[in-house]
Amino acid sequence: MNNKLLIVCFLLFTFCLAGCLPAPYYQKDEPMPQNAWTYNFKPKFSVDITDTVSNYQPFFLIRHTQAYPYNNLWIWVYVKGPGDSVAKKARINVPLAAANGKWLGRGMGEIWEQRMPMDLGDTIRFNHKGTYEISLEQNMRINPLPEVLHVGLRLEKGVHRQ
Asked: Which of 10, 20, 60, 116 has the fewest CB atoms lying closer than 10 Å?
């Protein structure tokens, strides 16, 4: 009887803890062909926005191996809103390791995963209802960029703007 009670308590605790994590408004990641990010591979994400009053926090998602040769990653982020003919772009530096060389994020074996908030300024305001296209392009000096397994986009919906 005590074992069943412990199991039920553990499950309730687990569900309560999982319920505290913020659910993303949008999240998707793309696998890298041959685990290397080439200049011409530009993952594109389509996000439908119906609420233009709330703020949205974009995150860059990356999964890489510990053999990734750099401590950061430079990317171009392109944002094309509904009705726009040209995408706005922002260049972002994504730190992947601390100054002491320790990888940031979560690791399991030789694979590391990170969710990095992106500050895109006014590039990603979502002022109009409709579908926004967001593309990511690697902007490092090496092509292809080895040991990158997946990249992605996550949007978390925040509080209403003033």
From this structure: 20
Which H or E element spans position 30? Answer: strand 26-31
- d(CA 72, CA 36) in angstroms, rounded, equals 15
> In whole angstroms, how far apart are CA 10 and each of 4, 16, 33, 70, 156?
10, 10, 40, 40, 28
Q: Which pair of structure tokens corresponds to residue 89? A: 């772009």
Asked if residues 51 and 161 have their Cβ atoms less than 8 Å apart, the reply is: no
Tens digits of per-residue pLDDT, 35-89?
A: 999 999 999 999 999 998 888 899 999 999 999 999 999 999 999 999 999 999 9
Distance of CA 81 to the CA centre of its chain: 19
Extract long-range pairs of 118-124: CB within 8 Å, 24+ residues apart: 118/58, 118/59, 118/60, 118/77, 118/90, 118/92, 119/92, 120/58, 120/77, 120/79, 120/90, 120/92, 121/90, 123/77, 123/79, 123/88, 123/89, 123/90, 124/56, 124/58, 124/77, 124/79
Radius of gyration of the chain (CA): 19
Give me the domains of the chain, ranges plus CATH numbers. Answer: 25-160 (2.60.120)
